[in-house]
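Entry 12.
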Amino acid sequence: MRKFLLLLSISLFTTIAYSQTGNIRGFVYDKNSAEPIMFCNVILKGTTIGASTDINGMYNISKVLVGDYTLMVTYIGYDTSTVNITLKKGKVITQNLEISESSVKLNEVRISAERSEMKTEVKAAAIKITKQDMEMIPNIGGEPDLAQYMQVIPGVVFTGDQGGQLYIRGGSPIQNKVLLDGMTIYSPFHSIGLFSVFDTDIIRNTDVYTGGFSAEYGGRISSIMDIKTIDGNKKEFGGKVSANTFGSKLFVEGPLLGNGKSSFVFSGKTSYLDKSSEILYKEPILYFDDKGLPYSYTDLYGKFSLHGNNGSKINVFGFNFQDKVDYEGISELNWTSQGIGSEFILIPGNSPVLIEGNFAYSSYDISLDEEASPLRKSGIDGFNMGFDFTYFQPKGKIKYGFDIHGFSTDFTTYNSVNSKIEQKENTSEFSAYINYQFNTTRFIIEPGFRLQKYTLGVSPEPRLGMKYIASDRLRFKVSSGYYSQNILSTTSDRDVVNLFSGIISSPEEIPDQADGNPYKNKFQKARHLIAGVEYDISRRIDFQIEGYIKDFTQLTNINRNMTSNADDEFIIENGVAKGVDALLKFKSKKLYIWAVYSIGIITRNDGEKTYNPHFDRRHNMNFVTSYKFGKNDSWKADMRWNLGSGFPFTQTQGFYENLTFSEGINTDYTSTNGELGIEYAELNEGRLPYYHRLDASISKSIKLNKNSELDMTLSVTNAYNRENIFYFNRVKYERVNQLPLMPSFGASITF
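Predicted 3D structure (tokens):
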């Protein structure tokens, strides 16, 4: 009875205490542009109560005792701003704040926003990328690019300059989900491998999850790249015009209606690499092409935003990305990605819930026209919509939501004997999730659950993330989960280079296991386990190390050995990726250093043989440095050096004459000349030589007036002209290398 009365008393006291509280929330904006400020600190002056803003610039302080307070916001490089508020019982105050860039130069390095986030979020296998981060990498052609920065992230393997793809901790490109303001982007990188479809100036923030991601994300079994774009300047017109050796671009932003509540953004960039490379290189770079580099692209993006007084907003955006590879007289590849979408944030009047949503329609079409083969093509188009609800609590938050995807695929190709292979499917996906984050003094615990409903079945996917804050400088983290996906690439994990990368849905008819028992799932599955340590060595130096295991329990691949309609079109494999990634960062006012070392082992098993896929790079190291110097730090020098062990390849055992029997049974084999046939050794048991490349750039900024600036950049890719192998032509017995030394010059005017 005494225990019951004690518990009742505690409950009544807690209820009375909570009844005397309220919530404070709002957004923090840049005073000059009205763009949201991410990861700044908002506190109640004179207390330890506060919160950090998210990627939307939103903060939320829950269960605050009623009374009068001074709300204060602080952020590195900005002046402190304060406002007085009065919090009443049971009320939710929405208080937006504006802060201005500081006119006083900082004399010491402050704790970064990224480090502050590390103490409030699990963030296992997660990298945050901002525009400022991308500017630390040598700029190829004078413009920073997301594709170039992705290559230095721990756990990421880049397979080459020409047709290069990104493989993230053992996952192939189709197993990496790329989101642009909630919309799925099916082809984020151009064929040249050095440029993405995204203009750096439109990117506010990019979160890259190389594995173990929370229940908020689904539909892929390897990684997530979540890109958020800017809303645009709501007060003044501005932009950038740039041109360089390889391309040019235009970026503009500004108020739309002149009321400070609406804005627009437009970006257009194009490449003329196919033309400029003819001037740079007098000799053919590729043995079959005498016109330089056959790559070109054009990317267009537009967006307008409308904001409410309380921070609610709606955005509408659209894009058109095009890519072309023209090997004149041999083959021509074209792909186009188009889309239109909308995202919104709703702030209910007196509720601690944040509502987010998105609607989108997109398409991706690719074709390959070869001189001696029929036209191959692939297309995917469809829609997606989703709603997310975030409920803020004093020691954490609950986030839940659902997504609906509907898409159709159309794929046509031909195998080695010109037998037609095609698939046309209409597919739907439904998913729902819940994610709970609970923070204590020492622990951050984040359990979650996602349910993926495909046309071919259901996938229940539990997730868990945890972080132990051992001290102010030392943290331990772990994450795990189950993952699935319903689409696959028309390329195979055995393909070394294949620019024709179509997309199809998981087939309904798949082969049985080796023992004759059918597979439980028609879609692909994986399990992740990640553990790591974060250590702040000093105020300037951060160190992180992570170990990971990705168990790909079911993978569907195109059957490259199919020779008749009796053969299976697809093969079912499994695989394991495991490794360790180490990252060391140094950052001061003038000097930035980023050093990464990765060791990993990737295997695949087709039921008969275990092999290493072509992207199994055992050792990979990146060293990046950026240094500012001169008057007002107007000069900047950047360098990146990459060293990687050799990729696996299948060796040649010998050659033979392959008779084609072009006249059927009437063919006279004694007088017919056959084609050259190749006898291969065991799959991928050889190793190519080590890869290494140095890129460097130097830039100068000149202030033209109060609002405009001229930037000039001189850069060089593959500075010491390393002959890194691209592939070996077995028929002509010729080695084809990656790109040689590539100098470039670029200039831009920001206004």
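Annotation: The chain has a mean pLDDT of 86. The longest strand covers residues 420-439.
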